[in-house]
């Protein structure tokens, strides 16, 4: 199957900064680019921000961010093709209030209200045809979230209307028991297909490998996955019974079955990331995995490296939207019902 895509995805920082940092996005864009340049030569930043006083609350009903308007419009009902807008967030890290990560140079960025101010206009632009996927590490990182064992962050994700989330390495920080309580609280599934009980072919009971969503008459399979670095990027004792297997092999093994079950689109929400290099290349765990994916995969919503990604590797679009609610990614896939494939 050929994979032709409209390059119709975008990281949308404009609205996020309106109430907090500056009147437009230039300041945030400059900060994010400077941070991206810094980490090109280093290990990915894992800065999860400090508490900062709230500077205000984003107004609801604000105009659609300008970046959104350059995304393709929804198609009229009855068209041969349909457009599904995937909203990607990741590495919220408990940022209920705006935070001041070191790279923000003293400015406050992100937060729950800011993220909502991004998400709602996308939902309004593609009514009934949005899917909100979160790339994981939702809970760990601020006093307000940590003191509630992540409960406050899951309340936010529920209110935002997240449809599915990847299990991030920091989801294990407070033990499997706490994670299971958070999973029960969440109104959406936590997904990971590459976690197995050591030495067996069995997934732990709490590790749901994929979920089915339906939008605009399409059946969409969402596979989850988790960074293979998890055994040393959370409390090791908490994940000692488990192994985190190769992401590409996991995806390749699942896709044919999902297609046979009638998936029109298959997407991956994964807590593993990468870094765009200046010359158009991408490196990192998710780029390596994408290069080895041989089955049809329509989109990757990534996380973990806190980077902005809007790129294509091996024909697969990959997005990631910084961290802490500072940005969201929007990827609009156009699906041709007659040809039964994405294209553009
Ligand atoms: Zn992470």
Helix percent reads 10-25%
Q: What oligomeric state do the depicted chains represent? A: single chain
What is the 3D shape?
Answer: globular
Percent of residues in beta strands: 15-25%
Q: What's the structural domain tally?
A: 1
- CATH fold label: Purple Acid Phosphatase, chain A, domain 2
Cα-to-Cα separation, first versus last residue:
14 Å
CATH H-level name... which superfamily?
Metallo-dependent phosphatases
CATH C-level name: Alpha Beta
Number of DSSP E strands: 17
Mean pLDDT: 83
Order of helices and strands: EHHHEHEHHEHEEEEEHEEEHEEEEE
Rg calc = 19 Å
Based on secondary structure, the structural category is: alpha/beta
The CATH architecture comes to 4-Layer Sandwich
Major beta-sheet overview: 7 strands, mixed
Model regions low in confidence, pLDDT < 50 over at least 5 residues: 1-5, 14-24, 43-62
What molecules are bound to this protein? zinc ion
- What's the tally of helices? 9
Summed up, what is this model?
The chain has 344 residues and is an alpha/beta fold.
Structure description:
With 344 residues, the chain is an alpha/beta fold. It has one domain (9-40, 88-338): Purple Acid Phosphatase, chain A, domain 2 (4-Layer Sandwich). 24% of the residues lie in helices and 24% in strands. It has nine helices and 17 strands. The strands form four sheets. Strands 1, 2, 3, 4, 5, 16 and 17 form a seven-stranded mixed beta sheet that branches. Strands 7-8-10-13-15-14 form a six-stranded mixed beta sheet, with helices on one face. A two-stranded antiparallel sheet has the order 6-9. A hairpin with a 5-residue loop joins strand 11 and strand 12. It binds zinc ion. Zinc ion binds at residues 137, 168-170, 271, 304.
